[in-house]
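agent> Task received from the user: take the single chain below, predict its 3D structure, and emit structure tokens. No templates, no multimer pairing.
agent> Plan: (1) validate residues, (2) run structure prediction, (3) serialize to tokens, (4) report one or two observations.
agent> Step 1 OK, no nonstandard residues flagged.
tool_call: predict_structure(input=
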Amino acid sequence: MRRALSDSIFLRVYVALLVALVLTLGIALGGFQLTNMVRLEAYQTRLGAAPMRLLVSQIAATPEAERGDFLNRTARLLDGRLLLAPAAVFDLSWWEQRRLEAGRPLVRPHDDAGWQLLMAVPGEERVLEFRLLHLAERQLRGLMVSLHDTLQPMSAEQRSDLLAQLQQASGLSFALLPDIPQNLDAQQASRLEAGRVVLNVASHGQAMALYTRLGDRAMLKVGPIRGFETTPPALIIAMILAVISLLGGVIYLVVRSLEARLTRLEKAATRIAGGYLDTRVRIESNDFLGRLGMAFNGMAERVQGLLGAQQDMIRAVSHELRTPVARIRFALQMIEDMVEDDFVQRQIKGADGDIEELDKLIDEILTYARLNNAAGIQLDLGMVDCREIAEQVCETLAPLHPELLLSIEGEGLEVEAEARYLQRALQNLVSNACRHADSRVLVRITSDPQVVRLDVEDDGPGINEEDRKKVFKPFARLDDSRTRASGGYGLGLSIVQKILHSHGGSVVVDKGRSLKGARFSLLLPLTSSQLERKAPVPLPPVKPPSPRDEHAT
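)
tool_result: status=success, residues=553
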């Protein structure tokens, strides 16, 4: 069946990554443009600060009656327009008004064309406007001439103060040199000697400096003035790193969501494998993971139903078998009472033994079904002495096997378990060992770092390594001496495994170290309080002997 494209998780991941890439690039380009705009505005403001502060200082020093002529003359010199008017004429915003009130220049594009430079005149309610189409060589030379005319009549101290103010306002370098710079050629030096403005462009073409000579042979240098860099390498690297980081973060979130859903599916599968068949996966969408989750839930529900039906059938059949078995036993007892023939009596005893075995088989089937229930069994846990359990088992089985020596080694260790189930597991192992032992069965109780170990060894033929996993399967039979002739129904070890699993432990089989036969080991975990008691107590630090102690001997 074809699925809608909207249900494809891979398509959704690809679309999410594409959208993230487009958004990231859009944010990067927007940030790049915004950064360039801010940098350009700061560059223009810094570049216009020196001429505006110079013009404002000249206006402030010019008498009111002469300001008109000064503005016209300076406007022709700078090839621009100069206007002195109240601030309300220029339609300023609140932020622009605050900027002018702080004594800072304001640079903004003009409506017609070119640029508009504004700066408030100190001590007055008026603003000086300098409007020009573009900043070119003529404006730079005109500004140098204006600066030359301002500095010419000043003393050395006044010149230094004014140049320091201009440098602080604009960030440009203003310096007075004692002689003609060495980087000027002969033609530039002659023009400088003639009192003209010299513009010197650096060899790399990225900066320029302006020179002019004052009347007292001092040389005024302005610059270097660097051009505006639209894309400095540091900014490009920072933007690339930001794009990579943002895109990596989005990809991580997308993949993390997918990984989290797969992890939940893995945990659910692990729980079902551990016997918790009521575990289900939460369905969040209709993509392929959602469909996988639905299929998983359906599979788990079907497995749970099949196992439940199997358990119900086993219990029902086992219970139903008890009634005819009881009737057969009752009939045999009646025949035994009525007939005294020795041959018939021997046959009746044989049949009664078979019925006894069948009754035991039914009991083991019911026990296995109860332990194998999907809902698990309710344990009445308590601290149980392992040696006491072992002694009870050996006392029960020793009269049934007088030809064998049943012995116990180890101290009385306690574990948290239900006594009747632990006794059932140990009794199954000891009974199994008694059926296959030649002369001796040994129960050993030891303590490992985190478990209590109950080993049951016999001196029989043992179990081949390739058959050791098979013995725990229900109704398993081996092809060696451990066959039906030795008795048993193949459920005892399966019951032992289920009992240990319900207690959080395990059962393993290997070759015995002492008796060289088969060795079955019950591994039961210690409680947290027992582990704390077993933790080694750190020894107190050894105090170094004092000189008095060393010489005491």
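agent> Step 4: summary for the user.
Residues 479-486, 536-553 have pLDDT under 50 and may be disordered.
agent> Done.
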